[in-house]
Amino acid sequence: MEVPTAAAAVEAFVADAATIVGDRHVLVDEDLVASYAVDWTGRWRGTSPAVVRPGSTAEVAAIVGAARRHRVALVPQGGNTGLVGGGVPLAGEVVLSCTRLDEVGEVDELAAQVTAGAGAPLAAVQHRAAAAGLAFGVDLGARGVATIGGMIATNAGGLHVVRHGTMRAQVLGVEAVLGTGDVVSRLRGLVKDNTGYDLAQLLCGSEGTLGVVTAARLRLVPDPAHVTTALLATATVADAVALAAHLRAVVPGIQALELMVGDSLRRVVDHLGTGWPVTADADAYLLVEATGADDPTPTLAAAVDAGPAGGGPVLGVAVATERPDRDRLWALREGHPEAAAALGIVHKLDVTLPVAEVAPFCARVTAVVAERWPDAHLLLYGHVGDGNVHVNVVGPPGDDPAVDDAVLELVVGAGGSISAEHGIGRAKRAWLTRDRSPAEVAAMRAIKRALDPDGILNPNALLPPG
Ligand code: FAD
Ligand code: MLT
Ligand code: ZN
């Protein structure tokens, strides 16, 4: 289903696009286009003849219609913070930037819902919710730039999944332009709506291959009155995993359980140039956040003191309840992607393991990288409450997938998933058939053919060629 982006076809498409969205919203200048053609890591870099920036759902539909007519491939793009090469034009596609669709509606306080344009940054939705005394259930480090459309398309996870679920749990309906050019719109926010196939949920995690999301009806959650954040140092990764499971079981209102392997956090602290709130020598650290209508600190402290049956000792504890102090603890966790990027091109693998496999996997991946790439830097961190480990390797050239393959081999062997939250994109599409069965991939291809019959929407992402 690869779509040729023939020069003449592109030229005719660009002319049509300019009449649809206006000249100034079609970028063809190489320097202007360049930043849309490379991803956040710098590992995935392509070229594009044009960036088209529609300002309404009707304009998106007209652009998709023109792309069908001229058989030009489109890559939908939001904030371009995706980490798997899925939102950049690696095969010369035209970029369909959704950032102008950034309107955030008034909060419906009765329903605890809001409608947001696909191009609205996550932070804008968070601010709008906070102003109404509510919160949005998904939070992640790229909150200032990542868009609602991109987060739906990747089914983003992030820091609060253990409490509120992934992006799909927040989505009550979408407006989208399918690859056929048809507009589907269901933004009424009905919590119960069993009227056949749930197209909104189908678009969650579809990575821009089935439709262009233009708006979404989103669920909001209560804004907790009290939040306590704690950094806990443990002797081993296994101890951190066991402690996380224990805290989730006994502390109500846990909203984050984040693992940082000792060597990784030491690199982040060096990078940030900050001090240590707890011992610097531990093998693992757990960042935990608990919420409640009353201060959850005593319950959390008692649970940490008791620990899991047979668990190792906690080597150090730092607790914060005020926003600036909590932010200082969170900076240690959120500094990981930046600290890795500062070392060079990062091979980023985001994987989930069965919880019992998290610690053995961390040990195995450390050993394999040390043996085969002794000069490489390895950072291991992630959302351990979800069994999600982020493996970052810096050293091997960006165009050499050997280390990616070695890590994913371990994941598949341990019964995990090759993508916990970032998606398949371009980076892992050769691996899709190792994770999903032939019947599953065939069903995905059938859906793709039905909703995007000409294969114009992100044809080089997610599904492997063939
Ligand atoms: P883009 O990067 O622009 O696109 C991503 C994918 O979505 C592409 O396949 C693209 O084609 C498609 N797409 C974009 N917009 C649309 C649309 N309107 N309609 C249809 N398809 C579309 N991710 C997590 O899940 N959890 C984290 O904790 C997390 N933390 C991060 C921290 C940092 C510092 C960074 C840089 C990234 C992080 N990410 C995380 C990854 C990234 O932020 C998410 O994948 C996010 O959902 C991408 O949103 P975006 O708007 O930038 O999408
Ligand atoms: C995170 O949790 O920090 C993100 O998913 C980004 C990353 O993997 O580096
Ligand atoms: Zn993550």
Q: What this model shows, in words?
A:
It contains 15 helices and 16 strands. The longest helix has 19 residues, at 323-341. A hairpin with a 4-residue loop joins strand 7 and strand 8 (183-185). The mean pLDDT is 97. It is α+β, with helices and mostly antiparallel strands. It has a 7-stranded antiparallel beta sheet with strand order 13-10-12-11-15-16-14, sandwiched between helices. Strands 5, 6, 7, 8 and 9 form a 5-stranded antiparallel beta sheet that branches. It starts with 6 loop residues before the first helix and ends in a 15-residue tail after the last helix. Residues 141, 336-337, 348, 350, 390 line the site of D-malate (MLT).
Radius of gyration: 22 Å
Q: Could you estimate the helical fraction of the residues in percent? A: 25-40%
* Uncertain runs: none
* Main sheet makeup: 7 strands, antiparallel
Ends apart, CA distance between termini: 7 Å
Which ligands, by name, code or SMILES, are bound? flavin-adenine dinucleotide, D-malate, zinc ion
Strand order of the largest sheet: 13-10-12-11-15-16-14
- What share of residues are in beta strands? 15-25%
SSE map:
Elements: H1 7-21, E1 26-27, H2 30-34, E2 51-52, H3 57-70, E3 74-77, E4 94-97, E5 113-117, H4 122-131, E6 134-136, H5 148-154, H6 161-164, E7 171-178, E8 183-185, H7 199-203, E9 211-222, E10 226-234, H8 237-250, E11 254-261, H9 262-272, E12 284-292, H10 297-306, E13 314-320, H11 323-341, E14 346-352, H12 358-372, E15 377-382, E16 388-394, H13 402-413, H14 432-435, H15 438-451
Parallel strand pairs: 2-4, 3-4
Antiparallel strand pairs: 1-2, 5-9, 6-9, 7-8, 7-9, 10-12, 10-13, 11-12, 11-15, 14-16, 15-16
Bound molecules: flavin-adenine dinucleotide, D-malate and zinc ion (ZN).
